[in-house]
Design the sequence.
């Protein structure tokens, strides 16, 4: 019986609820019961608006929304990282100019700086007037005050590769008591459009390529540190090698086969030339030409490999022709002229630096495969090489094809197999010097110089066998140079500026022949005479 009453009350509740919902939305009809009319007349809540009809969202639209939200989070994170302060204890990213160095300069001979405007969000390669190349990865330059940055950044570069520029800027090549052999010096300074100083972002590095006619082993990158006696070169960093980068050879920007067709048409191959090659061909030449007939139909009269040295801009700088068998000067000259007329190439590129491990990393199976975008490495254009092969057939046809161009496995033009320069990774701006420690195997000695009394006189030792400048220590009678290597050919340079006039004195001697140089008389010189005298120290006579 209990269950029957419960079921009846449940049905009655459902009936009452449905009646109330209908009375809320419909007006009371005539002849309706009094209770229903009273309930309809009672105040009720306003009717809620019907929900808007939302069209279905496609999968493409959802993907775009997810991508937009991810992009917004990425740029917000990047902006927060830009505002992060430099961690405590980190090396300064922008070194101020040394007061002693600035005071020792001659204002009229100060070298002007090259100015570049850099977009901080892009990979940028800067090429300076004297051959320096600077690779700035995206986001590597930031303001030192850790504030938000908008707009381009101005980078000022000063190059000091010549002895005259080094002396007039009051620069020397010493690291504490050690003598350094320099390969060139730079001064880098960066600032925003509103004048705020900038430096290299903590944890990132920039690449600096410094030219060298004959690169020497052991070169390192030193940073200038301000001391009481001027700039002292400290914190050496070793130079980069080719194995630290991913290398891409130069290639032609034209379509496939267009390069060899252009090269083949530019070489004259007349019947007279064919007759001359046929008459001069020996039996040993025929035997050596057998391997060249693999991809060149018909017997050949002459076969040559042409090595093209491509500079960092993509132009052909040097050509070397290697003939199979006896050399033909007239044919070699024609091939060289045709090679120099080729259009510009896409230069060789070094991407990196990358970290290489001798042991392979263990493979770990991921729990969930996710797409990760490929990391974009900064690219530095460098010198490269292109190899072309050309064959002169008996039937009057001329064959040409691209040869094997892997570096270091075949003879090539001088300076192409190596970098032909010094490449460094720098973590700071300011004064930068490419040096190596001078191996002083001889017994060091003390050398003294006697000069006229004066407070504005400076004395240096310029070495002949290697590029180094040693400053003198002032005494009551002149200058002394302690711990100098004996039996080295040097030139004593004394400079003074008095009453707006520059005075110069030069004396060439051999260390060890005399411990004290004769009295140096400084004579007034003009600007042209000063530069000519200092320029002669770049390649001094033995």
Sequence:
């Amino acid at each position: 019986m209990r269950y029957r009453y419960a079921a009846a009350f449940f049905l009655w509740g459902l009936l009452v609820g449905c009646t109330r919902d209908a009375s809320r939305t419909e007006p009371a009809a005539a002849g309706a019961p009094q209770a229903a009319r009273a309930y309809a007349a009672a105040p009720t809540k306003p009717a809620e608006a019907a929900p808007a009809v939302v069209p279905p969202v496609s999968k493409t639209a959802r993907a775009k929304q997810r991508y937009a939200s991810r992009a917004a989070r990425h740029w917000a994170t990047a902006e927060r990282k830009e505002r992060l302060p430099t961690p405590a204890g980190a090396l300064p990213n922008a070194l101020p100019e040394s007061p002693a160095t600035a005071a020792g300069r001659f204002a009229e001979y100060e070298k002007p700086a090259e100015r570049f405007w850099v977009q901080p969000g892009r990979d940028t390669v800067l090429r300076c007037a004297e051959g320096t190349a600077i690779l700035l990865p995206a986001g590597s330059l930031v303001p030192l005050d850790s504030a938000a940055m908008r707009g381009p950044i101005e980078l000022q570069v000063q190059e000091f590769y010549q002895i005259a520029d080094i002396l007039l800027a009051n620069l020397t090549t010493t690291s504490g008591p050690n003598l350094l052999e320099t390969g060139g010096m730079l001064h880098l300074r960066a600032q925003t459009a509103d004048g705020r100083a900038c430096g290299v972002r903590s944890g990132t590095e920039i690449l600096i390529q410094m030219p060298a006619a004959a690169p020497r082993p052991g070169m390192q990158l030193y940073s200038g540190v301000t001391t009481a006696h001027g700039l002292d070169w400290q914190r050496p960093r070793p130079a980069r090698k080719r194995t630290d980068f991913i290398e891409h050879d130069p290639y032609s920007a034209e379509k496939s086969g267009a390069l060899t067709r252009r090269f083949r048409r530019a070489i004259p191959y007349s019947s007279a030339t064919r007759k001359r090659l046929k008459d001069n061909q020996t039996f040993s030449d025929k035997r050596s030409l057998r391997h060249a007939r693999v991809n060149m139909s018909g017997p050949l009269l002459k076969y040559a490999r042409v090595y093209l040295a491509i500079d960092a801009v993509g132009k052909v700088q040097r050509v070397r022709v290697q003939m199979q068998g006896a050399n033909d000067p007239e044919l070699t000259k024609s091939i060289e002229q045709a090679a120099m007329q080729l259009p510009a190439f896409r230069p060789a590129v070094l991407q990196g630096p990358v970290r290489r491990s001798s042991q392979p990393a263990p493979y770990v199976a991921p729990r969930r495969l996710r797409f990760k975008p490929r990391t974009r490495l900064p690219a530095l254009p460098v010198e490269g090489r292109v190899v072309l092969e050309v064959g002169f057939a008996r039937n009057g046809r001329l064959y040409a094809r691209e040869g094997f161009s892997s570096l270091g496995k075949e003879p090539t033009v001088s300076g192409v197999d190596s970098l032909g320069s010094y490449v460094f990774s720098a973590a700071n701006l300011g004064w930068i010097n490419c040096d190596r420690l001078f191996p002083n195997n001889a017994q060091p000695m003390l050398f003294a110089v006697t000069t006229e009394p004066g407070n504005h006189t400076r004395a240096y030792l310029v070495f002949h066998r290697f590029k180094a400048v040693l400053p003198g220590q002032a005494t009551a009678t002149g200058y002394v140079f302690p711990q100098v290597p004996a039996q080295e050919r040097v030139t004593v340079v004394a400079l003074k500026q008095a009453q707006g006039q520059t005075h110069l004195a030069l004396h060439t001697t051999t260390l060890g022949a005399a411990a004290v140089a004769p009295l140096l008389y400084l004579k007034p010189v003009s600007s042209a005479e000063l530069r000519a005298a200092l320029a002669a120290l770049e390649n001094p006579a033995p």
User: Anything to note?
Assistant: The chain has ten helices and 30 strands. The first strand starts at residue 114 and ends at 118. Residues 19-54, 74-103, 406-417 have pLDDT under 50 and may be disordered.
